[in-house]
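Protocol step 4 of 6: structure prediction from sequence.
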Amino acid sequence: ARLTAAGAVPRFIGSRLGQVESASGEAIEVDVTLEATPSVLYDAVVLPDGGGAAIQRLASDGRTLEFLKDQYRHCKPILAVGASSELLGKARIPATLPSGARDPGLFLGPAGDTATEDAFVDALGKHRHFDRETDPPVV
């Protein structure tokens, strides 16, 4: 809701079309599948905390991990809420830059953490974070 209010146009991406149920029980319509859309088309990605079973299902789908890797390689902001941060580990996305410094485009935090949300919104406004770019890519 916060990103939409700021002018963002969210797209819900999933393993298949149809509805998925949010943690609160709300139905969310999947707009596009992982196999039908390249991650480079998106300015950022938000990984909601769907709980352990949902994270395991996504982690077992190679398309999910490739989508995340491509977001990382293209230096786009990534916000992982709660348990969804496990997906970053499964995709072998490092928590810090190769220099050891904090990645200015990678955010991990619990749901409702306004400081993390503020930092993500700020990073989204900068579009890309080239500090993470390496040749060849580390991920």
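Step 5 (inspection) to follow. Residues 114-126 form the longest helix (13 residues).
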